[in-house]
Amino acid sequence: MNAWQLFFRAVAILLAAVVPAAAGHAQEYPTKPVRIIIGFPPGGATDLIARLMAPKYTQIFKQQFIVDNRPGANGVIGSDLAAKAPPDGHTIHLATIGSLVLSPATTKVPYDPLKDFAPISQAVSLQNIFIVHPTLPTRTLKELIALAKKKPGAFNYASSGLASPGHLAGELFKNMAGVDMVHVPYKGGGPALTDLIAGHVEIFVAVISTAMPAVKSGRARALAVTGGKRAAALPEVPTVAESGLKGYEASNWYGMVAPAGTPQSIIDRLHNETAAILNMPDVRKVLLDSGIDALSSTPQQFAAYIKSETEKWTRVIKAARLEAK
Questions:
Q1: What CATH number corresponds to the domain at position 184?
Q2: Whole-angstrom Cα distance, residue 226 to residue 246?
Q3: Given a cut of 90, is residue 282 above it in pLDDT?
Q4: Does residue 33 form part of some domain?
Q5: How many folded domains does the chain comprise?
Q6: Do 117 and 259 share a domain, yes or no?
Q7: What whole-number distance in Å separates Cα of residue 188 and Cα of residue 186?
Q8: Is 168 helix (H, G, I), strand (E, B) or coil?
Q9: Rg of the Cα atoms in the chain
Q10: pLDDT score, position 232
Q11: pLDDT tier at 27 (50, 70, 90 boundaries)?
Q12: Nearest to 256 by CA among 122, 82, 77
C-alpha cells in the first residue's frame, strides 16, 4: 500500500468516526430534562404558550421539558440566563421581541441578541390591547384621549416592563394622540393585570391573551387593539387606527431560541418538532381562542427576521425618541 492509499484510508476512517458522532447528537438528545426559560412570571402570554408547548415536547422527546420562570427587566434576566447556559440543547428559551429587539435598542443588555442565540423557530404573533378599569368613564379610545387631554399626567398606564411591546405601544400612542400619561412598568403581564383589576392603575397596554379573561368577565374594559387588523378573538374591539390614530400599528411576537453553539443537529430537530407542535389543532385552537396566531419559521428565516426587526425598531425608537426611562 503506497503513501496516497494510506492517506485516503486514514481520511475514510476519520470520516466514518466523525459523521456518526455528529448524527448522534440528535439521536441521543435529550439525555436529561430540558428547561424552557421564560423571562416573565406566571399569568402572562409567554407562560401560557410555554406551558401549552412543554407537555407536547415531553411527549415527543420522551424526556421532561420544564418551564422555568425567570422574570425581570422585560425578559432580559431570562434571556441573559439562557444565553449563558451550556449549549447542549438542554436549555431553550421562549424569547420575546422585548428581550431580543426592544430592550437592546433602548438600553445596554448583558448579551448580544444576534450573536448569543441560535434561533430555532418563530412561535407566535400576537397583538397588544388597551384595557381600562371599569370605573374609568371611557368606553372608546377617543374618549380616553379626550379625558387624558383634560387631565395631563393624571392617569397611569401599565406595561409588562421597560421597553416592552406594551411600553412602546403606549409611548407611540402618547406621541400620536398628544396626551401625557405616566408609564408604570411591571415584571410581567400577570402582576400588571392584578393591579389594574385592583384599581391601582387605570390603563394597561396588555398582551391580548393576558387581558381576555378580565375583559370577558367584566373586570376590565377593552378599548382598542394595537395591530393592523381586529383580533379574531375579540372582533368587536376596533384597532387603534380605526379609533382615530390613522397609521398606528404595534405588533408583538415570540420565538424559540437556544444558546449559541448548540449543535445544528439538535437545532434542526427542535425546529422540526416545534413546527409540528405549533401545527397541532388543539394547540392552534387554544392560541387562537386567546387571540394568538401560531406560526413557525426555519432557523435561518427566524435569524433574518430578528435582524430585520432590530433594524426597523431601532429606527423607530430613535426617530420617536422612545428610549426607556
A1: 3.40.190.10
A2: 12
A3: yes
A4: yes
A5: 2
A6: yes
A7: 5
A8: helix
A9: 22
A10: 85
A11: low
A12: 122
Report d(CA 255, CA 123) in Å as an integer. 5
Task: Give strand pairing partners of 251.
Answer: 127
Judge whether 192 lies within some domain: yes
Percent of the chain scoring above 90 in pLDDT: 73
CB 74 within 8 A of CB 238: no
Residue whose cell numbers read 373586570: 219
Task: Name the pTM for this structure.
Answer: 0.80
For 252-271, the pLDDT digits (tens) are: 899 999 999 999 999 999 99
Chain Cα centroid distance, residue 47: 10
Please list, in sequence order, all residues whose beta carbon lies within 8 angstroms of the beta carbon of residue 167, skipping any fewer than 6 positions away: 74, 102, 159, 160, 161, 183, 185, 205, 324
Kindly tell me if the per-residue pLDDT of 325 is higher than 50: no
**Residue-range definition of the domain harbouring residue 149:** 127-225
Beta strands 156-159 and 182-185 are parallel
Percent with pLDDT over 70 in the chain: 90
Q: Is residue 152 part of a domain?
A: yes
Domain membership flag for residue 83: yes
